[in-house]
Design brief:
With 331 residues, the protein is of the alpha/beta class. Strand 2, helix 2 and strand 3 form a beta-alpha-beta unit. The longest helix is centred in the last third of the chain and has 24 residues.
């Protein structure tokens, strides 16, 4: 058995599998990795497609749609590989990608997870929104990347080609030590989808392991394959899950003050949607806060130290840098 399982979670993604799975197969070293499609209870032709056109690909057939987070938990619990790659169904890797990631992990035992450089599938000269060349989080809990801050995505001209320690790795193409993944509880199923990989990475950091961007490996991500950025459901999940992320991973000493500041900033975002007559997304923000208030009591265990205060890469205020100082790039 090779050391790596590349697990693609699929739900009604027949079209995506038809386009992207052949590229994953062609560019993945079969001596180093098995490709596994975990089907999240699809009702389209995905399962028939896998059986008829990709018989060499291993499959795990789940009984229903568990969402992104629990779907991966279900799949990883049934495999026994040393390393697992969580790979979105709309990702096409470049040749040699798995070798670069695996070599890095094997040579750096202190690293618990890593990601490749993520470029746009439709415009390969540019980074892709979800992950770019490594993720960070600012003092208010806003995620950003080397190569992408808010809606500004940079052109890739090699400026972020050095490996770098990061705060979070994208869930679009995330390699993790399987034992560590299981020890810290995997992805939080209560998130369902969106920001669950940041929560996972936060817990990896709290465990004492590092997270790295390894740009010597490259993948191309379509992005928005499940939900476009403007979809109110995506807005709801992003706002709710960001509040859960902070509530869950901040200590008692700083959690209340930082959540208060973040909720005030979210109120400004709600106002911007409302003034733009985007009432669907304004309502999504309101529902996110309402449901966060219901869900937060389910988290009773918190760390004893604050990574947002301890790490230099989290002390940046992205809102001020981006909107007031007009600093729209990472460098």
């Amino acid at each position: 058995m090779p050391p790596v399982a590349v697990i693609i979670l699929n739900w009604n993604g027949e079209k995506l599998l038809r386009e992207y799975l052949p590229q994953v197969i062609a560019n993945t070293n079969s001596d180093k990795a098995d490709i596994i499609v975990a089907d999240n209870g699809s009702t389209d032709g995905s399962r028939q497609l896998l059986a008829e056109e990709f018989p060499s690909v291993k499959t795990l057939l789940l009984d229903r749609n568990y969402g992104f987070a629990e779907g991966y938990n279900q799949a990883i619990a049934r495999t026994g590989y040393e390393y697992t790659v969580l790979l979105n169904s709309d990702v096409a890797p470049a040749h040699g990608w798995i070798d670069s990631l695996l070599n890095f992990m094997e040579n750096h035992p202190e690293v618990g997870a890593c990601q490749p450089k993520v470029l746009s599938y439709t415009d390969k000269d540019y980074f892709e929104y979800a992950g770019a060349s490594g993720g960070f989080i600012d003092r208010n809990g806003y995620p950003y990347c080397r190569g992408r801050i808010f809606s500004t995505v940079e052109k890739d001209h090699g400026q972020y080609d050095s490996p770098m320690e990061i705060f979070w790795a994208t869930g679009a193409a995330l390699m993790v030590r399987t034992r560590l993944y299981l020890e810290i509880g995997g992805l939080d199923a209560r998130f369902f989808a969106h920001m669950e990989e940041i929560d996972l990475c936060w817990r990896i950091l709290l465990s004492g392991s590092k997270i790295m961007a390894v740009p010597q490996a490259t993948v191309y991500h379509l992005g928005g394959g499940s939900l476009p950025a403007s979809n109110p459901k995506k807005t709801y999940l992003n706002f709710r899950n960001n509040l859960l992320l902070l509530h869950k991973n901040l200590p008692d000493s700083t959690r209340r003050s930082k959540l208060l500041r973040r909720r005030l900033l979210d109120t400004l975002a709600w106002g911007k949607f409302a003034l733009s007559f985007d009432f669907a997304n304004a309502a999504a923000v309101w529902r996110a806060h309402r449901d966060f208030a219901k869900m937060r009591n389910g988290y009773t265990s918190h760390p004893d130290h604050d990574l947002l205060d301890e790490r230099t890469d989290t002390r940046r205020n992205i809102l001020i840098d981006y909107y007031l100082r007009r600093k729209t790039t990472f460098l």
